[in-house]
């Protein structure tokens, strides 16, 4: 369920973008009415309107996630705060300059922040971030935990580069599709492959 919760803002971004893309005149007039005071020139055209409206939705959705967790007394992951900061800063730049280039960088920066945190923790602070998250559910040799941690570092690094490649070599609609289906699909495949690897190394309790 957590992965669905994490991907909710992306799904809402996708939904708004697709709807606005199919109704560009409505999107342009709505974006101009709602966001005109925030954009350079005060007018949003039909080409950039879909991504601007979708950007507003993802900012609101990410903020709503944090408020919902706070209302329930749940711990808010540091990465969710980072995500809110990134989407607010880059999203605001996208809205003001009415250019999707800024928001397209957000997934990459977030991937690299997560990967960099795991790498820094392992190499500098000698703390395995993945082990800290998963050790309560399974027992593994330290060497395996290191492999798992570095595999996540590599995954986040590759996903960051892949996002940029799709974002700046294909139409925005293709990037939006990849952002939801490609990101979620590759994450699920990676987790499945890793689960198979972990299953071979999990220590079992042999106590009578």
TrEMBL record:
Membrane topology of the entry: Multi-pass membrane protein
Xref: InterPro entries: YciB
UniProt entry keywords in alphabetical sequence: Cell inner membrane, Cell membrane, Membrane, Transmembrane, Transmembrane helix
The keyword Secreted belongs to this UniProt entry's keyword annotation: no
Subcellular location: Cell inner membrane
Annotated transmembrane regions: 51-69, 78-97, 109-126, 147-168, 180-198
Family under the similarity heading: Belongs to the YciB family.
Record's function text: Plays a role in cell envelope biogenesis, maintenance of cell envelope integrity and membrane homeostasis.
Annotated protein name in UniProt: Inner membrane-spanning protein YciB
């Amino acid at each position: 369920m957590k992965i669905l919760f994490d991907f909710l803002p992306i799904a809402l971004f996708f939904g708004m973008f697709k709807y606005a893309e199919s109704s560009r005149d409505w999107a342009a007039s709505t974006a101009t009415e709602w966001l005109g005071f925030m954009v350079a020139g005060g007018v949003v055209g039909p080409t950039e309107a879909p991504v601007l409206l979708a950007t507003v939705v993802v900012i609101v959705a990410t903020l709503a996630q944090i408020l919902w967790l706070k209302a329930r007394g749940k711990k808010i992951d540091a990465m969710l705060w980072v995500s809110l900061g990134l989407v607010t800063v880059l999203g605001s730049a996208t809205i003001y300059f009415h250019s999707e280039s800024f928001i397209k960088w957000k997934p990459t920066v977030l991937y690299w922040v997560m990967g960099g945190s795991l790498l820094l923790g392992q190499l500098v602070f000698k703390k395995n971030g993945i082990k800290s998250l998963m050790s309560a559910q399974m027992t593994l040799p330290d060497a395996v935990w290191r492999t798992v941690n570095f595999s996540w570092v590599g995954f986040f690094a590759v996903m960051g580069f892949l996002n940029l490649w799709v974002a700046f070599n294909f139409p925005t609609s293709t990037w939006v599709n990849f952002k939801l289906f490609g990101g979620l699909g590759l994450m699920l495949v990676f987790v499945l492959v890793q689960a198979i690897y972990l299953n071979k190394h999990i220590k079992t309790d042999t106590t009578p």
